Amino acid sequence: MNNASNLKIYRRFAPIYDHLMRSWTAVPRRKAIELLELKPGEQLLIPGVGTGLDLPYLPDGVCVIAMDLSPAMLKQARNKCQEPVGFSIMDGQALALPDGCFDAVLLNLILSVVPDGPTAMQEAWRILKPGGRAAIFDKFLPEGNRRLGLRRLAGWLIRQIGTDPNRRFREMIQNIPGALVLVDAPSLLNGLYRLILMTKPIDTVERGAHE
Q1: Confidence of residue 28 (pLDDT cuts 50, 70, 90)
Q2: Which CATH code fits 3-202?
Q3: Domain-by-domain residue ranges, the chain?
């Protein structure tokens, strides 16, 4: 996968994405948002908002910045706003945002879609304030499973429609020191999809300043 191929794929999928995804992802999307325990006035970043299927579940009073690489997907998302949302075309692997400026980040079905999941995870972590939270709903290869030949082939075929079923969550966070995983629970398809909550240690900045 690369950004150019993903743009082509999601330009085609944008008109039908909600029809394909809305019903069976609604509950875990809502649960991921509930994990964040968002409060009025907090700053939330959604790096891969897609067609905006998460937006109806956001609580009132949260300041939301929603972005996606695909203009076609963002066009669909703009029609789902309950409250003002700032939309932007941006690559989740290279966020043009300063460090430590968001209270929370929502990563629903993006880490398995972007070409480089660990880089997208690191970028999301970078923009979080110390004490900030990250919620994830996505599919990951179970840690004990091996990427055997048949699974590799299946993964290659599925990647042609813009998503990778063979990524491991531990690979997403292996270069994030101090990441605290508070929740890692099975969700859909016997745990292939998972709900995860992480928090950024409050003393991250202080530790760096004294080293």
Answers
A1: very high
A2: 3.40.50.150
A3: 3-202
Which three-class secondary structure state does DSSP give residue 165?
coil
Structural element, H or E, at residue 206: helix 204-210
Paired strand residues for 88: 67
H helix or E strand, kind and range, residue 128: strand 128-139
Model pTM? Answer: 0.87
pLDDT score, position 38: 98
CA dist 3 and 116 (Å) reads 10
How far apart (Å, rounded) are the C-alpha atoms in residues 52 and 68? 10
| Residues 100-150: tens digit of each pLDDT | 999 999 999 999 989 999 999 999 999 999 999 999 999 998 866 554 444
Structure tokens at 38: 């968002």
The secondary structure of residue 97, as a DSSP letter, is S
